């Protein structure tokens, strides 16, 4: 499989791994069964609630620390375990946690960041499955500013691994044109 990054990391596009009907069905099931909460972000010492919603799932004890708070992992649902196993086979990696993001429409996105928290196993694979609305995913090199953009579609799987998080940031672009919901699952390997 072709590495989409020219240097300093690895980004792979596995294409659409769930047929459209199935992907939408999974999204509906996720809407009903996942413990969604508004995300809280600390900015300049104040806590803000994002309109984007998140949920954290994983093995027992795989808690997640960011923006000054600890998120306790919910235990895997049967559906999440099924998806995880498919993603693990395709990415040839193992994951023990999953962060789910729910973007109601194009007004919600995610700013530039790297998934380089201390609690993530260094240089491990991070897989991302998209469900619902197509959204633009940007990756930008910290030094050269080189940018790669991907339109992530319903049922599409990508993964980043190696030293990617040391040299590249990524973001989910906002868009006035997107009127519908998107759910994203990022599978991770935590220490
Ligand atoms: O929604 C996406 O595609 C990106 C999510 C992301 O970067 C993250 O959860 O760290
Ligand atoms: Fe990320």
TrEMBL record:
Cofactor(s) of this protein: Fe(2+)
GO biological process: DNA alkylation repair
Record key words, sorted: Dioxygenase, DNA damage, DNA repair, Iron, Magnesium, Metal-binding, Oxidoreductase
Listed InterPro entries: AlkB-like, AlkB-like_sf, ALKBH3, Oxoglu/Fe-dep_dioxygenase_dom
Fe2OG dioxygenase domain residues: 94-191
One term of GO molecular function: catalytic activity, acting on DNA
Superkingdom assignment: Bacteria
Entry protein name: Alpha-ketoglutarate-dependent dioxygenase AlkB
Organism this protein belongs to: Aquirufa rosea
Classification lineage: Bacteria, Pseudomonadati, Bacteroidota, Cytophagia, Cytophagales
